[in-house]
């Protein structure tokens, strides 16, 4: 018999019991590694109005949803899930500063341009293979720290230096790429 997936509501209730805190008042909520795993982000997350950091990593989530009411959210951790696109992220565009979404099957960055306050994007080990998708990051003026290693686009470059030069030339705003500071020539 297959186990029913954990719902966000159940995961939040479990978190409250373990932490002996009220989730709607908490600033940091960690719902990673649920067993059985969470498969759907749902409206229960929107009750977390004071949450500044939400971790849902290492579950089986396939799309971003249910976060429209999270008006304080600054850091969203969704690594190691089954998320295929960034659709749904726009609902927290005003507040989100960091998106940790490595190890997912994302191949397109459509919609990233609304993230005007995004400073940190960890999107390593996804399926992005086109420069046209990478170039969408030019629409994120606040972006400073990008981890992109492990994507086909990065891996298909002749060497690390070519990758770093190409990436940093395309994204003039970033100061750190794949964990290493970017040194730019100044006049």
TrEMBL record:
It comes from Papilio xuthus. Its main location: cytoplasm. This is Dynein axonemal light chain 1. One of its GO terms (molecular function) is dynein heavy chain binding. Pfam families: LRR_4 (PF12799). One of its GO terms (biological process) is outer dynein arm assembly. It is found in: Cytoplasm, Cytoskeleton, Cilium axoneme. One of its GO terms (cellular component) is dynein complex. Belongs to the dynein light chain LC1-type family. Keywords: Cell projection, Cytoplasm, Cytoskeleton, Dynein, Leucine-rich repeat, Microtubule, Motor protein, Repeat. Gene3D superfamilies: Ribonuclease Inhibitor. PANTHER family: DYNEIN AXONEMAL LIGHT CHAIN 1 (PTHR15454:SF73), NISCHARIN RELATED (PTHR15454). It comes from the Eukaryota.
